[in-house]
Amino acid sequence: MGWRKAVFGAVLSAVLAVGGCSVSAGGREDAAPPERAAGQPNDATGQPDDATVQPNGPTAGNPAPSRLDEVIRRGELRVCSTGDYRPFTYRAPDGTWSGIDIDMSRDLAQELGVRATIVPTTWSGLSRDFQQNCDIAAGGVSVTLKRAREAFFSEPYLVDGKAPITLCANASRFGALERIDRPGVRAVVNPGGTNEQFARKHLHRAEIRLNPDNNRIFDDIRSGRADVMLTDATETKWQAKQHPELCAVHPERPLSFSEKAYLLPRGDVVFQQFVNQWLHLRTHDGTYDRITTPWIG
Asked: Which pairs from 179-184 meet CB under 8 Å and 24+ separation?
């Protein structure tokens, strides 16, 4: 019997020793959990710990590239402009450019320390040409929601709206849209821009005539080939100043509301903010007034 007691005691001691090891390794409440690899989901949340989340985009130390930096590296600011919308933009037959927004674009380029290159475009092709070939579009560009789907705008620099221009002898006839939208009235517009859009929206009985040469379109009124044109009030005032036989009809009370701004690359907030800051300064330090006065007083 003595040897049986000895064997039983040895077995019991071994069992107790193994059980104690298991409790100390896995049964204590203060035991440390096993380590997880970086990025492995947390058992409780199903998501990686914050410390293991890797950045998946631009960070403060790795900002997204901006057109601002690209323009400076290139040494050139490419400006899309139609060249047919005085006083904002004009391309003379000899290829020289002038206008309020041409001078403003050159001032922006000078501030950036680069040269300004004017890229000819048309109103119907403005958005396409801008996206493919330019850093900014300027020249009396109206803010529209359609354009805003494809690009950013700067802060507006001018409030404008559509107004009639006609022979002074006919000014009293065309003081309101309902007096323009009558059978027998010939309204001339340039295709592809907001002038055509406005005319087609509001004129249903008058005849709409298209003239793609916006530099000569007012000759249609002067020669009697058309009766009236609906365009931005700023342009009607400039044209009336150049041609005394033409009268802008209440340009101080336009028939619609619009704003002029510069077209900028979609999504590039850095470039947009720089242009906005430049524009804010130029419209308050006398530069914009100095540039516009020779054109519209």
From this structure: 180/206, 180/228, 180/230, 181/205, 181/206, 182/206
| Tokens 């999504």 sit on residue | 267
pTM above 0.85? no
Sheet with 136-137, side-by-side order of all strands: 115-120, 76-81, 136-137, 263-264, 152-153
User: Of all helices (H) and strands (E), which one includes residue 228?
Assistant: strand 228-232
CA distance 160 to 254: 7
Res 58: pLDDT: 52
Neighbours of 270 (CB within 10 A): 14
- Asked if 157 and 288 touch (Cβ cutoff 8 Å), the reply is yes
Q: Percent of the chain at pLDDT above 70?
A: 79
In terms of phi and psi (left: phi > 0; alpha: psi -120 to 50; beta: otherwise), the region of 267 is left
> Does residue 145 register a pLDDT over 90?
yes
CA torsion, ordered 272, 278, 124, 65, to nearest 10 deg: -30
Indicate the pLDDT class of residue 167, thresholds 50, 70 and 90: very high
Q: Give the CATH class of 162-256.
A: alpha beta
Average pLDDT (114-126) is: 96
Q: Are 216 and 135 in contact (CB under 8 A)?
A: no
Domain ranges in the chain? 67-159+259-296, 162-256
Selected from 1.10.510.10, 3.40.190.10, 3.40.640.10, 3.40.50.1000, the CATH number assigned to the domain covering 67-159+259-296 reads 3.40.190.10
